[in-house]
Design brief:
Helix content: over 70%
Number of helices: 4
Radius of gyration: 13 Å
C-alpha cells in the first residue's frame, strides 16, 4: 500500500505517534487530526485489519530499542494505547 514512500510513511507515523504522546492527557485535541487520517486511509483502501501488523511492528521496534526496559507492563500499556488509537483512525 505504501510501497512508493516507505520512509516517508515511517516519518508520518512517528510524527503522529509524537503528537499522541504530547497530548496524552488531552486526547480530544487529536480529533481533527485523526479524522483527517481516517479519510486519507479510506481513500487508499486501508482497512481496520491493516492496523494489526503495524501495531506488531511498533511493539517489536519498542522491544528491540528499549531492551530490558521494555517490561511486560509497558508492552501491555503500548498495546492498549495502539488498539484504542487505531480504532479511531
Amino acid at each position: 500500500m505504501f510501497r512508493d514512500d516507505l520512509a516517508g510513511q515511517g516519518m508520518k507515523f512517528m510524527t503522529t505517534l509524537g503528537m499522541v504522546i504530547e497530548t496524552i492527557d488531552h486526547p480530544e485535541k487529536l480529533g481533527d487530526r485523526f479524522e483527517e487520517l481516517g479519510k486519507g486511509h479510506a481513500l487508499i483502501g486501508v482497512k481496520a485489519a491493516h492496523f494489526a501488523p503495524m501495531g506488531e511492528a511498533l511493539i517489536d521496534t519498542l522491544r528491540n530499542e528499549l531492551g530490558e526496559s521494555f517490561t511486560g507492563e509497558l508492552e501491555v500499556a503500548w498495546r492498549a494505547a495502539y488498539e484504542e488509537l487505531s480504532a479511531r483512525v
